[in-house]
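Take a careful look at the sequence and tokenised backbone pasted below. I need to know what the token row says about the fold.
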Amino acid sequence: MSTLEKSIESKEKRFVAFTSVIAAILLTLMKLIVGLMTGSLGILSEALHSGLDLIAAIMTLFAVRISDKPADHDHNFGHGKIENISALGETLLLLITCVWIIYEAVHRLMTGEVEIIVTYWSYAVIIISIIIDFSRSRALMKAAKKYNSHALEADALHFSTDILSSFVVLLGLVAVQFNFHAADAIAALFVALIVIYISYKMGKKSVDVLTDKAPLETVKLVNEILAKVDGVIQYHDLKIKSMGPSTFIAATIHVDPHLTIQEAHTIAENAEAHIKAQIKNCTIHIHEEPDE
């Protein structure tokens, strides 16, 4: 990747992350104000969820700035894992949200202390939230896939959980208008379950990368590519690991023992070119050996 392309990538990732911070601030303030006005636990739980999303969005902004730094003497493989650490931190924040939501919901259901005022503002803030969350999650996921950014992907999942939980809260508000006031607390519990599920998926992915677990889809793809490269008789010691947006690949290939060093090197370069054509932002090291 050229310096210009790297610069464009960094600017786009930072811009998407920055706009997410602004969106999170707006959503948190709206939900908090309306939640306090109406006493809706569903909306207040959404406000807390968005508040932690704000912290997560700020973490993402810093993560993409740091992860784009080139490799140096202390970090030979670059700073990509900063994105995975950020994603894991966001997972923990989401789980903290769940603890509070579940506690408050159960308390209200057990004590019957449910006094909710449903107004047009209650519906307005949730509908506006769904629209903003949808646009942000799409923009973040698009950038995440384009640049293989785990931090942006985690942020996109945050906004996606907001969409799901907002729909649940919206159903709860409708039920309250039919005098089923416990529906608000029940809706909050469903929000918590949704968040726990998404947190588990995101956390597992972050831990897999931080512990250098080989990405199965990438391993399968590289196996398919090497098996089809002309001149490669067999290969072994395939090792793959992810670091944020980057992928590091190493393998040993066997070639005809009668080839010259240059010819063997050309086969290795051809294999690397095929892999790079299908896997973005990857660093490859292929060692050639004469086939016995």
Observations:
- Helices lie at 3-38, 41-67, 81-111, 120-147, 150-177, 182-210, 216-228, 261-278.
- The mean pLDDT is 81.
- The chain has two domains: 3-210, 216-290.
